[in-house]
Amino acid sequence: xxxxxxxxxxxxxxxxxxxxxAESFSGVIGKSVKKVPLLRGRTVINLFFESSTRTRTxxxxxxxRLSADxxxxxxxxxxxxxxxxxxxxxxxxxxxxxxxxxRHAESGAAEYIAxxxxxxxxxxxxxxxxxxxxxxxxxxxxxxxxxxxxxEPLTVSIVGDIRHSRVARSQIHALNALGTGEVRVVxxxxxxxxxxxGLGVRVxxxxxxxxxxxxxxxxLRLQRERMxxxxxxSESEYYRRYxxxxxxxxxxxPEAIVMHPGPINRGxxxxxxxxxxxxxxxxxxxxxxxAVRMAVMSLVLGVAPESTPExx
Length: 312
Ligand code: CP
Prior knowledge:
The protein is of the alpha/beta class. It folds into two domains: 12-132 and 286-300, 3-Layer(aba) Sandwich (Rossmann fold), CATH 3.40.50; 134-285, Aspartate/ornithine carbamoyltransferase (Rossmann fold, 3-Layer(aba) Sandwich), CATH 3.40.50. The protein has eleven helices and nine strands. Helix 1 (12-25) crosses helix 6 and helix 2 (54-65) crosses helix 11 (282-300).
């Protein structure tokens, strides 16, 4: 694994290996700060061209738990002055960077950067446009496996703005590769991707049928920053038809869990009773992001432990 840019096309064995490696790290992310020395002497550079709360901070924490030196480049004040992205990269590489963690509004940006870095420098995609958010998908499937065990018997319903969601796309590829029984997308036609037929999902336009007997329900926000004039329902109309609440979950499996990659918009795609209720694993997802990102970072740099690492 040289870079980590997408979950599309990754084999089940590799995804399972990432999950197992993350499991071995989960003991070193508790409140009493512990570190493992796997990335001691390595430099990780966070390059976030788009805003982030969860992904940037958990990548930083993950790198620090692995004992790496972490730089957070403020791209808003660094990339001006006419310098090209590639020149900027080469300058950061000259500081002996080992890894770039990249978020960008353009689909394909992380792949572009991966094509231009020196051999031995790894690129992790922290979300590119509508395309992919692979570590988010991995922390989501990690969370599902922790709660539900095997993927084969599961029905997973992804509800909301699938069309503009890099998270949904990466989740669908990962869930299918891991052998999930049924992956559903639940959305109005205007919020489905044009290539939905080829994604290996069942499409539902009605929330009740989409949630029926689901074991896992994943809510997504309306990603208005990527919509550019799309024909959309109003927020109140959207909530009436697709808003997730404890009452709407009555048709799901009684032990269904509720997930959301965040940020959540309460009263739009999800009600507080559900987001803060006993079914919700939304904040667990955030915590699990640290172990999953530790796993991916150590795997791409070829230092992942065979068993539970020694923490100090
Ligand atoms: N889930 C997610 O990508 O959140 P952030 O935008 O806060 O990183």
